[in-house]
Amino acid sequence: MRVPKRKSEEFRKYKDEGGPLYVTSQGLEKLKSLLAHTEKELPSLISEVQRTGGFGDFSENAEYQAAKYLMRRAHGRIATFKDKIKRAIVFGQGGGHIYAVQLGSTVVAETHGKRLTFEIVGSYETDPVRGRISHESPLGAALMNRRVGERVILAIKNGEIEYKILSIQ
């Protein structure tokens, strides 16, 4: 007989969830508020499972199955948030003159005559549309530990892109 595995167990083996999670203080507060919100809604989900469980046969009770799914999902989210908070390493933003690009730096770079601004953040807080890139992304990794005036060449599918660092804050 084969023991069933949940999908979350299958996905977990492909993720590296053991390392540190670099976040800003705002990112950590967001994680804590998401955890508190999810924990607050859990009792209502549990009572819904109990209520729908009284409708009869569990195997044919769609309402029960849906309530059970939502409860399992909330438990999974709580475990994920707690794990991320436990692994979180808060890094500072701004403050003083920075000589090299590091986590929390805001970098102004120029490429093809256009000025671009990037904020280097941990992978949890990335938002490329707003200019927040991960230190693990190809561009973020290329910028790390570079100084003002240095040029960074990034290999892409159709060639290369050159960025010149104009300022670091």
What does this structure look like?
It is a single chain. The chain is α/β, with parallel strands linked by helices. The protein has two domains: 20-90, Helix Hairpins (Orthogonal Bundle); 106-168, Roll (Chitinase A, domain 3), CATH 3.10.50.30. Helix content is 40%, strand content 23%. The protein has four helices and seven strands, in the order αβααββββαββ. Strands 5-4-3-7-6 form a five-stranded mixed beta sheet. A two-stranded parallel ribbon has the order 1-2. A hairpin with a 2-residue loop joins β3 and β4. The N and C termini lie far apart (60 Å). The mean pLDDT is 88.
Quick structural summary:
The protein has helices spanning 7-12, 25-53, 62-87, 138-143; strands at residues 21-23, 88-90, 106-111, 114-121, 132-134, 151-156, 159-168.
Sheet having the most strands: 5 strands, mixed
Instruction: Give the total of beta strands.
Output: 7
Classify the beta-strand content into a percent band.
15-25%
Tally of individual helices = 4
* Shape assignment: elongated
Annotated CATH homologous superfamily of the largest domain: Transcription elongation factor, GreA/GreB, N-terminal domain
The CATH topology annotation of the largest domain reads as Helix Hairpins
The low-confidence runs, each spanning 5 or more residues with pLDDT under 50, are none
Tally the structural domains: 2
Radius of gyration (CA) equals 22 Å
CATH 2nd-level architecture of the largest domain: Orthogonal Bundle
Provide the CATH top-level class of the largest domain: Mainly Alpha
Major β-sheet strand ordering: 5-4-3-7-6
